[in-house]
Design goal:
The protein is α/β, with parallel strands linked by helices. Among the domains are: 84 residues, Gyrase A, domain 2 (2-Layer Sandwich), CATH 3.30.1360.70; 100 residues, no CATH class. Helix content is 49%, strand content 10%. The chain is built from 20 helices and 13 strands. It is globular.
Length: 589
């Protein structure tokens, strides 16, 4: 189903052609002066010089071919040569009715879909999720859903930090605490226990304790322990059976806990891969880079030059192997691309990562292109997100200044919503808590996603949980209000909308018609905030209509059915949009 703007543009192009003018650059746009008209066209302006005519004269000639149009109630030329357009109510209602019966409200899926892989999440195992993981999870989940909606086969990968020194630190600390475990017995030949020797809570205490012992600036620094941790890391990576068994325990209980916490955010991954999965690709990858002359030794390290002549600032080489033989994040990320190309052959890989990692990913992408890991036609995109700050403008933390656990933040926002709900009406205790969770998630996600991803934003609990203004609860309240009206009607409306002449009715229909255009923009720009902006405008348009027009008390049954059919479509579009943002609406609030 063609976009409404495309239909308007087609008719304009035809009018330009009939008037004898080229129409290849003719387009219609939503008016930037809605007080004057609904749509506008500036196509006459660039033709003036070639036609040796005033732009206004050209516009007037074009408008003469639109005077009998069934699409436009207004088509007038205004100085210095603009064409102002209003569309007819019947043309608009016909389009809205087509949306109501079309799959995806008439959105045309990508003709040539590709496989898209969205890399988001990135938590380290053995550690709880904290608010630093929030934006990657929320933004990445929405982008994954948007890509799927547009028709692309899309996979989401959590990309775990499950390899490296932190594993050796945990193993070394466990050996100090429980040296008699079979994992540390060099002569042990049986099967290792299937149950882990620690719980997730114990693991979350073991790791920071071990980590502090390895930091020279810490008051618990232990040089011998640090050396033991490095040794354990090396033995793990060389396949020592007991250490591999401990590592597998760490993975199993960490992933189970991560899945539980991500489920609470309604964030879901198709792939639970990590850095450990790509270690096998590194040796061949490095040798190939050396053999083909891309990688060379510099100050003992192996590097690849990535600077280009067009660079406006210096871009340092990408380090593949350090002077001590250790690999880095860049090595692992490149090997991950090797694996992704081999296993999934994606045409588009999107990385949703803190924007401070921009230099790192620029080096990785250039190295991947230069060395042939990723073909030129495959698209790599870094979506660097900004910081979530408190009302003081500083990174959001707990009251005592620590890093807040994600489950703590969710609990706090749910409690804030629950208190506001109790101010307005009485609920059964269990129902109230479940409803608060739904609204709390909407408040959290919408509060984040309504901001442009690349920018820092202020996390304001009071504002985000408000039932008024540009917030998640306001959007949900609008949906619930529509549900309530339809419920009171007592039957399903016919679904057919007839324009009755009300301004707010037309405004609402016009907002609905912008759905497909908005989805395209959200996908092309990896911009969930475009959806937020759209549904806020749509919710406002509905509420204006609701307050200005009698709906359930309308005596004309045909009008009433038309109004309710318009409400039903509005509800469906709003629900589709919030699903793309990653939350849902309750039955009542």
């Amino acid at each position: 189903m063609k976009k409404l703007l495309d239909l308007i543009t087609e008719e304009l192009k035809e009018a330009f052609a009939k008037a004898g003018y080229p129409n290849d650059k003719v387009t219609a746009t939503v008016s930037n002066r809605p007080d004057l008209c609904e749509y506008q066209c500036n196509g006459a302006m660039p033709l003036a010089k070639e036609a040796h005519k005033a732009p206004l004269q050209i516009a007037e000639e074009v408008c003469s071919f639109l005077k009998d149009s069934k699409s436009f109630s207004l088509a007038e030329a205004v100085k210095p040569g603009f064409i102002n357009l209003n569309i007819t109510g019947n043309f608009l209602s016909d389009y809205v009715n087509q949306m109501a019966i079309a799959d995806k409200f008439g959105y045309e899926e990508e003709e040539n879909p590709v496989k898209v892989l969205v890399d988001y999440g990135g938590p380290n195992v053995a550690k709880p999720l904290h608010i630093g993981h929030l934006r990657a999870a929320i933004i990445g989940e929405s982008i994954k859903r948007i890509c799927r909606f547009t028709g692309h086969e899309t996979l989401g990968d959590v990309h775990l930090g499950d390899w490296g020194l932190q594993m050796g630190q945990i193993i070394a600390e466990l050996k100090v605490r429980e040296p008699d475990l079979p994992y540390f017995d060099e002569s042990f030949e049986g099967e290792y226990p299937k149950e882990a020797p620690f719980t997730i809570s114990e693991l979350e205490e073991i790791y920071p304790t071990a980590s502090k012992k390895c930091k020279t600036e810490s008051d618990t620094y232990d040089a011998a322990f640090a050396e033991a941790a490095h040794q354990a890391t090396a033995e793990l990576q060389h396949g020592k059976p007991g250490y591999r068994a401990i590592w597998q325990h760490i993975i199993n209980i960490s992933v189970a806990d991560l899945k539980k916490n991500y489920d609470n955010l309604d964030v879901h991954f198709d792939l639970w891969k990590g850095e450990s999965d790509v270690q096998k690709y590194i040796p061949d990858m490095v040798e190939k880079m050396k053999a083909e002359g891309f990688a060379y030794e510099s100050e003992g390290a192996l590097v690849v030059d990535v600077a280009e002549e067009t660079d406006k600032k210096e871009l340092p080489p990408c380090i593949i192997v350090k002077s001590d033989g250790a690999t880095l994040y860049s090595t692992t990320d490149l090997a991950t691309l090797v694996e992704r190309m081999e296993l999934f052959a994606p045409g588009y890989v999107i990385y949703v990562v803190d924007k401070r990692q921009g230099l790192h990913f620029e080096q990785v992408f250039r190295t991947a292109r230069k060395t042939g890991i990723v073909p030129e036609e495959e698209k790599l995109f870094f979506l660097g997100f900004g910081t979530m700050n408190g009302v003081d403008g500083k990174p959001y933390k707990t009251r005592d200044g620590g890093v807040m656990r994600l489950e703590t933040l969710i609990a706090e926002i749910n409690e804030a919503v629950l208190e506001k709900m109790k101010e307005n009406r009485e609920f059964e205790s269990s129902e109230a808590e479940e409803t608060a969770k739904i609204i709390g998630l909407a408040a959290l996600k919408y509060g984040d996603l309504s901001n442009q991803a690349t920018k820092d934003y202020i996390f304001d609990m009071e504002r985000f949980t408000s039932f008024e203004g540009n917030t998640g609860p306001y959007i949900l309240y609008t949906i619930v209000r529509i549900k309530s009206i339809l419920s009171k009607y007592g039957k399903t409306p016919s679904g057919k909308v007839e324009f009755t002449g009300e301004k707010t009715e037309k405004d609402l229909m016009m907002k609905l018609t912008m759905f497909s255009q908005m989805i395209d923009a959200a996908y092309e720009e990896c911009a969930p905030h475009k959806i937020c902006s759209y549904i806020y405008d749509l919710a406002n348009a509905f509420n204006s209509f609701y307050h200005e027009v009698r709906i359930l008390t309308q005596e004309d049954e045909a009008k009433k059915d038309s109004y309710l059919s318009l409400l039903l479509l509005t509800q469906r579009v709003l629900e589709q949009c919030i699903e793309l943002l990653g939350f849902s609406a309750p039955e009542r609030m």
